[in-house]
Input
Amino acid sequence: MNPMTIMKLMGLKSQFENNHPKVVSFIQNVMGKQLEEGTIIEVSVQRPGEEPVCTNMRVTKSDLELIEQLKELKESGR
Output
């Protein structure tokens, strides 16, 4: 990957962490633990002036495999 792209992504990541510390903490505390097959993840979005829209997913074995592959990719990029 292009080093300039990596630097840009790192800056955007830092900005996101500064703008949304509760979300980052939540992801680290809840999602940072080992997810188990069958875990349900729910997401809700509410745009200004609109009703909330919500969806969820049940974590599958293939989801866990994808997460592991992404972790390995992240570690190999260090």
